[in-house]
Structures are given as C-alpha cells and as structure tokens.
Write a structure and sequence with these properties.
This protein is mostly helical. About 55% of the residues lie in helices and about 0% in strands. The protein is built from seven helices and no strands. It has helices at about 15-20, 30-50, 55-65, 80-85, 95-105, 110-125, 135-145. The longest helix has 19 residues, at about 30-50. It is globular, with a radius of gyration of 18 Å. The protein starts with 12 loop residues before the first helix and ends with a helix.
Length: about 140
C-alpha cells in the first residue's frame, strides 16, 4: 500500500457535485475525506463485481485491450462489442467457438461486472509485472487478495 500524499488536483464540476451531494448541506465540502471515501467504495464495488474468468479468458480480454490504459471512460461499457471489433467480426457465426462463448458471456454481464473487468484490464496494463512469476499471482494482486 502506498503512503498518503498531499497533492494539488483539479476537480471537475461533476466531481465537485458528487462530493457535495454526499455531504450535509450545512457542512463545508470535505474534499480529502469525500474523495477517499468514493475511491474506497469504487474499489470495493469493482472487487465485488469482478467476474470469475479462467486464465485463458482473462488473456483474451487483455489482448482485446492490449496496452490500453482507459483514461476517458465512456458509458456504457461494451466489452462484447469491443471483442467483436478486435477480430473484425460483425456476426457471432464468424467467431471460433471459444471466442464466441466468451463474447456471449461478456454480453450477459451487468454494467458493474463490465466496469470491474475494465478496471482489471487497466490495472494490468498500467503496471510492470516483470517481478511476478505467473498470471495467477498477477490476478491475485489486482483482485486485492
């Protein structure tokens, strides 16, 4: 776990509004406490919502987003569509069976599950994992286990 750090940041109107809506109107907005609490909730939510996939399924999804660090998320998440685009397919019938099964699985995921999977992808591609010996160790680190 990293240490606390005092930082100067710009908060968008959306972020300020989110903080203000979560605090009593009579109180001054507690930026640090509010942001830390929102990040804590987000971290819990993505960990609780992360779908269980085997190593091959994770590697397939990671390859779809190869090297991507998502810095401008646009809702809704569309992992199944991204998978189809990745191989240039417009029909499920054009996919090999295992890939098709994973596309269908991701299509059935809720938005929370898709966001959690995208968060996993971002954490994977944002870090140098050369000190890890296998994917299971990497996945456990990302999942916070």
């Amino acid at each position: 776990m990293s240490k606390s750090k005092k930082a100067s940041v710009y908060l968008s109107a959306e972020t300020m509004g989110a903080l203000q809506r979560r605090q009593k109107a009579s109180d001054q907005v507690n930026l640090s406490g509010g942001l830390n609490e929102m990040v804590s909730r987000y971290t819990w939510m993505v960990r609780a919502s992360l779908p269980e996939l085997d190593k091959t399924e994770w590697q397939t999804i990671l390859n779809v987003y190869s090297g991507t660090v998502i810095d401008d998320f646009v809702a809704p998440a569309r992992i199944a569509s991204d998978m189809m685009d990745s191989v240039g397919a417009i029909s499920l019938d054009a996919l090999e069976p295992d890939y098709r099964a994973l596309v269908e699985k991701t299509h059935a995921w809720s938005q929370a599950e898709q966001l959690a999977a995208l968060d996993f992808v971002q954490q994977f591609w944002a870090k140098d994992w050369s000190g890890y010996t296998d994917f299971s160790s990497i996945a456990a680190e990302i999942k916070g286990r």
